Amino acid sequence: MRIIAGLGNPGKEYEGTRHNAGFIALDKIAEESDISIDSFERHALTGKGRINGEKVLLLKPQTYMNLSGLAVRATLDYYKEPVESLIVIYDDISLEPGRIRIRQKGSAGGHNGIKNIIAELGTDEFDRIKIGVGQKPPRFNLVDWVLGRFKDEDLPKIKEAVERTAEAAGFMISDGAEAAMNRYNG
């Protein structure tokens, strides 16, 4: 089974924020795969289904971003799935709005959700899809930036990135992360 974790913060006040790009993308994946993310288990909202013939579990940690690893670790342990089964989708301020980048491993790059997942799993070797949300403007507080909503002019780019992320996740499941990197990174 593949576990696809979209990162974000729970609650209405965080809906549509840059930091919730992972939740937004996971909702798109769920919609396209006819999967309902409506169960609550192990600190997360989850939904089970199939993508490209493979069993998947969609996971939205409800622990707030900085503790995302708790839900990810608990889920992997419960289902006895290896780290190799994991795909994490999250926002990245180092990418322009609308760009996506697939990686198979790497540092947290300052992202607290990824930092916590790496700490909980004891490894940085897991597949990920990063969604560009753009750099914070000068003299802007980073927390305010990532918890802020997308600019109107960025919304079409983000919508396209979310659609490409959903497509890329399916491709990763059927063809592997390396093939997906060759196809979607550029």
Commentary on this structure:
- With 186 residues, this protein is α/β, with parallel strands linked by helices.
- The protein is built from 6 helices and 7 strands; from the N terminus they run E-H-E-E-E-H-E-E-H-E-H-H-H.
- Helices cover 37% and strands 22% of the residues.
- The model has no long low-confidence stretch (mean pLDDT 93).
- It has helices spanning 21-33, 68-79, 112-121, 142-146, 155-175, 177-184, and strands at residues 2-6, 39-41, 44-51, 54-61, 86-92, 100-103, 127-132.
- Strand 3 (44-51) and strand 4 (54-61) form a beta hairpin.
- The chain has a single domain (2-184), classed as Peptidyl-tRNA hydrolase (Rossmann fold, 3-Layer(aba) Sandwich).
Sum up the structure in keywords:
seven-stranded mixed sheet
Secondary structure: elements and pairs:
Elements: E1 2-6, H1 21-33, E2 39-41, E3 44-51, E4 54-61, H2 68-79, E5 86-92, E6 100-103, H3 112-121, E7 127-132, H4 142-146, H5 155-175, H6 177-184
Parallel strand pairs: 1-4, 1-5, 5-7
Antiparallel strand pairs: 2-3, 3-4, 6-7
Helix pairs in contact: 1-5, 2-3, 5-6
Order of helices and strands: EHEEEHEEHEHHH
CATH class term: Alpha Beta
What coarse outline follows from CA principal-axis ratios?
globular
Calculate the mean pLDDT score and round it.
93
CATH superfamily: Peptidyl-tRNA hydrolase
Which structural category do the helix and sheet elements fall into? alpha/beta
Share of β-strand residues: 15-25%
The count of helical stretches stands at 6
Compute the number of strand runs. Answer: 7
Query: What is the number of independent domains?
Result: 1
